[in-house]
TrEMBL record:
Keyword ATP-binding: yes
UniProt record, GO biological process: cell division
Protein name according to UniProt: Cell division protein ZapE
The organism's place on the tree of life at top rank: Bacteria
Organism in which the protein naturally occurs: Microcella humidisoli
Keyword vocabulary terms for this entry: ATP-binding, Cell cycle, Cell division, Nucleotide-binding
Lineage: Bacteria, Bacillati, Actinomycetota, Actinomycetes, Micrococcales
Keyword Cell division: yes
Gene3D superfamilies: P-loop containing nucleotide triphosphate hydrolases
Matches recorded under SUPFAM superfamilies: P-loop containing nucleoside triphosphate hydrolases (SSF52540)
Any Pfam family matching the protein: AFG1_ATPase
Length: 341
């Protein structure tokens, strides 16, 4: 379809974000919707005692982050040292990100908060040594949606976290997968068991049970607009908005490093995608997941025509090792297209 340009509509594919190392790392803070997250305003579901227990576990870990590290050559006997990391394991919508953000807010000093994808993307963009130099000595490294998608990520993150822990940093992470099961179904995990176990052994695992508090129906549908509805929605946008064919956006994402997707959508209130179609390339699918994560964090609305965005991942992709990524992206696209209406 062809959409007549408006005074506010531009093209996402014309954006080429250039970001310095300091800017890339400087974006590592909780999304705006968690700006006020605290342990006090997390409301545990009484039906699931593990939620209240998780709050207390994070409170305890917070005090450990604040505690000074005893010198290696202290003459006094050192107290038993807790593991340097805490790992929140639970399903969608049980408040893991809220608790992680609350810990970040309670922590003094230099601290970082980002998704696993963001950290690995930054390491890829800056190079390993420069990334270590930026993160070394931070009081807290908070990693949301921890996941290992390939052997390279496994080895890099194992090495990175090892160096950061040695510099005195504490690590807090969330995931839908217990740490010893990271990588299952994605690659030959058995061949990298030592690295996976090295990561897992740095964490105290805290299980959080419960139902999705957002009550989003993963079987629902993202909103797909007619051409006329799309044009009207774009014309009604008063802030920053872009309009592009879906296929062109996928091609453009291949030219932008995922660590810079946050810059790609900077200043936008909404994006328009025309002629959405089912994905056939897994690399395109994973890039779309990374973009959707950034759109969701920034709460950028999506207007779209063509195939409903919740149907872009074919069954064979959903049956593979990236299933949880695709389901997360599906849930978020449903939310962002619904918010746009």
């Amino acid at each position: 379809m062809t959409v007549e340009p408006t005074t506010t509509a531009a093209r996402l594919i014309d954006r080429q974000p250039g970001m310095t190392a300091a800017e890339l790392v400087g974006h590592l803070s909780p999304p705006p919707q968690f700006a006020g997250a605290s342990l006090e305003n997390y409301v545990p579901d009484e039906r699931y005692p593990s939620q209240a227990a998780a709050v207390e576990a994070m409170r305890t870990f917070s005090s450990e982050v604040a505690a000074p590290v005893r010198g290696l050559f202290s003459r006094r006997a050192a107290a038993p040292v807790a593991k340097p990391g805490v790992y929140l394991d639970g399903g969608f919508g049980v408040g893991k990100t809220h608790l992680l953000a609350a810990l970040w807010h309670r922590t003094r000093g230099r601290k970082y908060f980002g998704t696993f994808i963001e950290y690995t993307a930054i390491v890829g963009a800056l190079g390993y040594r420069e990334a270590v130099a930026h993160f070394r000595g931070a009081a807290l490294i908070a990693i949301d949606e921890f996941e290992l998608d390939d052997p390279g990520d496994t080895m890099v993150m194992s090495r990175l976290l090892g160096e950061l822990v040695a510099s005195g940093s504490r690590i807090a992470a969330t995931s839908n997968t217990p740490p010893h099961a990271l990588g299952e179904g994605r690659f030959a995990a058995q061949d990298f068991l030592r690295e996976i176990n090295a990561l897992a052994d740095r964490f105290t695992t805290v299980r959080i049970d419960g139902e999705d508090y957002r009550k989003r129906d993963i079987e629902g549908h993202a909103v797909a607009l007619t051409d006329e509805e799309f044009a009207a929605r774009i014309a009604a946008e008063t802030g920053g908005v872009t309009v592009d064919p879906f296929r062109d956006v996928l091609r453009h994402l291949a030219t932008v490093h995922p660590s810079r997707y946050v810059g790609l959508i900077s200043g936008l209130d909404a994006i328009g995608l025309t002629d959405v179609e089912v994905l056939s390339n897994q690399t395109d699918a994973l890039r779309l997941v990374a973009l959707v994560d950034r759109l969701y964090d920034a709460q950028v609305r999506i207007h779209a025509t063509g195939v409903p965005l919740d149907q872009v991942f074919p069954d064979e992709m959903l049956a593979g090792g990236y299933r949880k990524k695709y389901l997360r992206a599906t849930s978020r696209m449903i939310a962002l297209t619904t918010a746009a209406n």
